[in-house]
Amino acid sequence: QVQLVESGGGLVQAGGSLRLSCAASRSDFIFNVMGWYRQAPGKQRELVATITSGGTTNYADSVKGRFTISRDNAKNTVHLQMNSLKPEDTAVYFCKGGIIWGQGTQVTVSS
Asked: Which residue, 44, 38, 34, 45, is CA-closest to 96?
């Protein structure tokens, strides 16, 4: 069974940057699509960005131009570079590969 482990969350001031990483526990299983989702308190989980194994990306309108998703198929990892962070980006960020979810990592943006 494959597990996904996120890292890189934390506390940052508005306008700052963070880089999230997600590593799969097995390198011999490549997900066709990997992505990042987030869930703020009292809100539903929402899509942030996805990327296919071929590199095609998709972003939520709220993060376009600020966030960049990338992946390394050889290492079976996916990253989310978050720039120009806003307080409304505060949420638990989850990595997803196929139907498998990571445990989440907290991102807090202070104003």
From this structure: 34
Dihedral pair phi/psi, residue 16, rounded to 5°: -85, -175
Give me the tens of pLDDT residue by residue for the chain, a chain 111 residues long.
899 999 999 999 999 999 999 999 987 778 899 999 999 999 999 999 999 999 999 999 999 999 999 999 888 999 999 999 999 999 999 999 999 999 999 999 999
Question: How many C-beta atoms surround the C-beta of residue 23 within 10 A?
Answer: 18
- With b meaning 16 or more CB within 10 Å and e meaning fewer, what string describes 29-43? eebeebbbbbeeeee
Task: Report the alpha-carbon distance of residue 83 to residue 86 in Å, rounded.
Answer: 9
Q: Find residue 46's DSSP bridge partners.
A: 38
